[in-house]
Design a protein that fits this description.
It is built from nine helices and eleven strands. By secondary structure, the protein is an alpha+beta fold. It has a domain of 220 residues: BirA Bifunctional Protein, domain 2. The strands form two sheets. Strands 1-5-6-11-10-9-8-7 form an eight-stranded mixed β-sheet, with helices on both faces. It has a three-stranded antiparallel β-sheet with strand order 2-4-3, with no helix packed on it.
């Protein structure tokens, strides 16, 4: 990264802080090391050890997201909050658009829905226009449902194939051969990654909303039961942001924890799960919508770059290459 790019990166981060502070959000600073994490079968984590003076110790984990600590703050009445933090994800490819250690902006808006957070994100991008945001990264955002996108580029409407067998048959017509025992989520991801994602329009940022409920998340289900109240943002060739209208029903969160904890048994790195964590949703809890946005990718988009090369200090592919 050149000194000039480093100054732009620093200015962008300062502008992010100004943007949320001016809107009344409270900036928080939560731990990177944690004795337990939210179970997510799609994410591998980094494990390390906390050592005590007597030589004993316990396993700890580098947080893949500050969510595990930020959501209890929401439940405790802190209101709308945001954080810019280091996050860590293991088992992923390294290179042009990935780094195992990255900078994340995460915010939670109380008494707000996912649609309102599209507007907040658009306003954040407008705030960055003075930095030279290229035409294809400027708001207003294009919006497309996942059903629309899949129908457009594959002829498949996921909500019409809620069973794994039905979706697998549709996938075979595209030349995809699902394996025995493959989950609905896995088959869908293969369709999306191979056919839909590469075809998405890039003339301006795209919000892809109404994700299939067959992908387990902590996003609230919509009334039809077939979709999650969730969207992702694509801009400048990057998947930049992920938003949930957060699930706040204790029983549903507890079921998610149980199901994903079981799935984590086959992970490369198993981690501890605090089974009491869903208790934060007992009693009154504000409606809340949360967004996780990759700061490194946002800086790349702002500068019109197609990779993370040159927008982060000491990328791991360079460090390990040495």
């Amino acid at each position: 990264m050149t000194p000039e790019t480093a100054r732009i990166r620093a200015a962008v981060i300062m502008e992010i802080r100004r943007f949320f502070t001016d809107r009344g959000f409270l900036e928080v600073d939560t731990p990177v090391l944690s004795p337990h994490l939210i179970p997510e079968s799609s994410i591998e984590v980094f494990a390390t050890s906390l050592l005590y003076p007597d030589g004993s110790g316990r396993e700890m984990y580098l947080a893949p997201s500050p969510e595990v600590w930020m959501k209890p703050l929401i439940a405790a009445g802190y209101g709308s909050i945001f954080q810019i933090s280091k996050c860590f994800r293991n088992g992923e490819q390294q290179g042009r658009q990935h780094n195992p250690e990255f900078t994340m902006l995460e915010w939670y808006a109380t008494d707000s829905g996912s649609q309102e957070n599209i507007t907040v994100t658009e306003d954040l991008f407008r705030q960055l226009l003075p930095f030279g945001l290229p035409e294809g990264a400027r708001p207003p955002f294009r919006r497309m449902s996942m059903d629309q996108a899949c129908a457009e580029y594959t002829g498949i409407i996921p909500s019409e194939h809620p069973e794994t067998g039905s979706l697998a048959e549709a996938a075979e017509k595209l030349g995809i051969t699902p394996e025995s025992g493959e989950t609905w989520e896995s088959v869908f991801n293969r369709i999306f990654v191979q056919f839909v994602e590469p075809s998405l329009p890039r003339d301006r940022p795209l919000v892809l909303y109404d994700y299939p409920s067959g992908i387990p998340t902590l996003a609230r289900l919509k009334e039809d039961g077939l979709h999650s109240d969730r969207w992702e943002l694509y801009a400048g060739g990057f998947e930049c942001a992920n938003c949930f209208a957060e699930e706040t029903d204790f029983s549903r969160v507890a079921r998610y924890f149980a199901g994903e904890t079981k799935e984590k048994e086959s992970s490369l790195v198993r981690h501890a799960v605090n089974r009491r964590w869903p208790e934060i949703y007992r009693g009154d809890h504000p409606s809340v919508s949360g967004v996780a946005l990759g700061v490194d990718r946002l800086v790349a988009v702002t500068l019109g770059k197609s990779s993370l090369e040159g927008v982060i200090f000491f990328p791991h592919c360079d460090i390990l290459g040495e």
